[in-house]
Write a structure and sequence with these properties.
This protein is of the alpha/beta class. The chain has helices at residues 2-15, 18-28, 35-46, 71-86, 108-116, 120-138, 155-158, 189-192, 200-207, 213-219, 231-239, 246-255, 271-278, 283-297, 300-311, 314-327, 332-347, 354-364, 382-387; strands at 47-51, 55-60, 92-97, 101-103, 144-148, 151-153, 165-168, 173-175, 211-212, 224-225.
Length: 410
Amino acid sequence: MQRLKNLLVVSRSLHKNGPFISDLYSRTISAQPNYYAQHHNYQEDQVLVEGRAYSRAAVLNRPSSLNALTTSMATRLERLYESWEENPDIGFVLMKGSGKAFCSGSDVVALHQSLNEGKVEDCRTFFRTLYKFIYLLGTYLKPHVAILDGITMGGGAGISLLGMFRVVTDKTVFSTPEAQLGFHPDAGASFYLSRLPGYLGEYLALTGEKLNGVEMVACGLATHYSLNARLAWMEDRLGKLMTDDTSVIENSLAQYGDLVYPDKRSILHKIKRIDKCFSLDTVEEIMDALENEAAETRDEWSITALKKLKEASPLSLKVTLRSFREGRYQPLDQCLAREYRMSLNWISKQISNDFCEGVRARLVDKDFAPKWGPSSLGEVTDDMVDAYFAQLDEFGPELNLPTALREPST
């Protein structure tokens, strides 16, 4: 409660300057008729709001792009969530997506285009805005329900999995495919994935392997499972609640939920083998262990895992493994600060152009033949990896999170 009071005091002090800032902003854009209205409507269209009796729902609304995240969306989410947290007439908050996806992650095609056009500052702004919202969600003072119905990838997981309740369905597909795109699993992934049982997080991050809704519940990424056909009833029930009591919200979710268990083909039944291979210290050792597994057992799992690692950027694999090993021992704010540093060093292209090359090959030209540089693990030096964890210095300020007001998760 004291944290909430402190937040409200700071927020009100900032609002005192509102008229001046608003007036200054209006004068600045006065030569551009209807700019504010058009920009404001654009933000609203990408994230819709549904009002409930004692709650609010944020609806990600870019269905044609699988609700991929933009700077405008992250900005609007942050503003909405801050205002809802302060509002005593709102007990809890819900997030969902429109169409067949919850959220496919960051709009990497737009980032790729911005980088090619030299708009590096736009990319910095995107990462800064997104990570700040993720920290807000991870320290949110009110109950939060995320309905992950459909595709949930990368940044889409970041804006949902750090909340209190995570509902998955028979349509849910989760993955973090960034290493295959020449990037690194970010948006808090080094925090929440590194806390999964054993070394499952390293396995998911390095291979980009998918999990279904049942598997997400089983490993702890999700809290509730419901059939897609029951979601309308669940939402109707939640919309009628007049409470901020987490036990009441949880009981309402459980009312339309199911007890589920992974089937015998699930990779979760291979956790001992995953730990045996992915607990090793280097990517080279992990791949050698998988080679031995494949030679001894000739089973599909080890062969597929090895294939996925060979398809990924060698640089991404090494940077990702180090990121997750550090993330195991860091609280949320430190994970996000490190990921921000890594992301900005990545888009600087000072070491490699792998991110743009990966997006080009897999999402733009779709030739699925990225030319990684360095092209092999042996060419990736320790100095190259260290560069992604270095202080930003000339490339911009570090990520500034309100840790004094909002205590980070550990």
